[in-house]
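input
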Amino acid sequence: MIRPYSVFLGALALTCAFNASALPTFTGPIATASANIKVTQSSQIDLIADLVADTLPDNTAELVGKHLFRISLTSADKNIKIALAGDMDTVIDGNGLVHSSVKDNGTKLIGVIEDSFKDQVTSDSSFIPPTANQSADAAALLLTGEDMYRIYFKAADVEQNIAAGAYDFNFVAQAYTD
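output
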């Protein structure tokens, strides 16, 4: 004769055995893997300042229109869009004026981008490279459609506060998409 409680215990044992085997049991050491992905720059840009004026007069009347320097920009592809802006204390403003870094005596030299590029200057801060001068009056020169640019800067026809000495103009260029 089978006792009723033994059937119940047998069913309980099968249920426990089934549930115990459904849970995973980890054994051995853990194996790991990682993926290192290298992103390479596909928009090579070269930036050079050259044809720098050796000497300039120290008064505004004689200085206006004198050649200061040339920026030469080349890219690997003419379809690359480039933003050129002032770096450190140099500022390209929305009118195409380029302000040198201010010297210790408070003076600075103000140049101007050549006329053929003035309509490519934007004050839209979203086009200013992140490492460029981000002051409120900063702007960028947007260049598209060529793989080489030669941009000439001359002394601006504005009141200059200059003294004898060296003046620094610093620039940064970066490719962008929009």
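quick obs: Residues 74 and 141 are 14 Å apart (CA to CA).
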